């Protein structure tokens, strides 16, 4: 059976659903966050800049090439488009990428240079992990308004460590990805859950 490529309406629906869920959880306040999905080997669907991610409609997405250039529209793509381009260029198996601004990822990334996650059952949702008895270190990058420079730093890290399960930009937010939008969403949910556990366990100390 040959697989057909996902369509713009299908991918938009998946990204709209992720936005509604993330907003309900408080992970995409105001216009924070951005989402994308791979449409083809050379193209992606990505949120336009400045949209509220809990209230997305199909009109809030545009098609861009993997250099970040919008195709057939004069709308401005997400300010952080180059971070999505980096992921799709890095690994052709990546089909969806999601970015959140949660309280937990913001606070932990202001304190640590990497976020250590150990012993959680939900680690098994991250690539290549088969047991709770594992340790994952989520890298934290210094925030930078020069997104091309930030994308280059992320790329260098991922070339060095291809098992990177996601990353956090300090004081800013999480990027996670997967083969599909659904898989990217599960990974965001798993990582945000474990970040929340880490944050709360610090309050218990
Ligand atoms: C305006 S605050 C958030 C932005 O600076 C950015 O970090 C963000 O996540 C959303 O930007 P956007 O251009 O809407 O994709
Ligand atoms: Zn952001």
TrEMBL record:
UniProt keyword NAD present: no
Pathway: Amino-acid biosynthesis; L-methionine biosynthesis via salvage pathway; L-methionine from S-methyl-5-thio-alpha-D-ribose 1-phosphate: step 2/6
Pfam families the UniProt entry points to: Aldolase_II
InterPro entries for this protein: Aldolase_class_II_sugar_metab, Aldolase_II/adducin_N, Aldolase_II/adducin_N_sf, MethylthioRu-1-P_deHdtase_MtnB
Residue stretches making up the Class II aldolase/adducin N-terminal domain: 13-199
Requisite cofactors: Zn(2+)
Assigned EC number: 4.2.1.109
Cofactor binding comment, as recorded: Binds 1 zinc ion per subunit.
Reactions listed under catalytic activity: 5-(methylsulfanyl)-D-ribulose 1-phosphate = 5-methylsulfanyl-2,3-dioxopentyl phosphate + H2O
Keyword vocabulary terms for this entry: Amino-acid biosynthesis, Lyase, Metal-binding, Methionine biosynthesis, Zinc
Name of the molecule in the record: Methylthioribulose-1-phosphate dehydratase
Source organism (scientific name): Solimonas fluminis
Gene name tied to this protein: mtnB
């Amino acid at each position: 059976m040959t697989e057909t490529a996902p369509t713009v309406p299908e991918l938009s629906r998946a990204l709209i659903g992720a936005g509604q869920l993330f907003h309900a959880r408080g992970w995409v306040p105001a216009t924070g966050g951005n989402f994308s999905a791979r449409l083809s080997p050379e193209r992606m669907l990505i949120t336009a800049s400045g949209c509220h991610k809990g209230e997305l409609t199909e009109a809030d997405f545009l098609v861009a090439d993997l250099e970040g250039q919008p195709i057939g529209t004069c709308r401005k793509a997400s300010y952080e488009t180059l971070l999505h381009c980096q992921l799709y260029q890095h690994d052709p198996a990546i089909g969806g990428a999601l970015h959140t601004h949660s309280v937990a990822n913001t606070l932990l990334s202001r304190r640590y240079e990497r976020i250590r996650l150990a012993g959680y059952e939900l680690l098994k949702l991250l690539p290549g992990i088969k047991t709770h008895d594992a340790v994952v270190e989520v890298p934290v990058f210094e925030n930078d308004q020069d997104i091309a420079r930030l994308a280059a730093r992320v790329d260098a890290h991922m070339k060095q460590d291809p098992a990177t399960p996601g990353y956090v930009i300090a004081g800013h937010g999480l990027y996670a990805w997967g083969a599909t939008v659904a898989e990217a969403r599960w990974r965001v949910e798993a990582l945000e859950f474990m970040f929340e556990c880490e944050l709360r366990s610090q309050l218990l100390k």
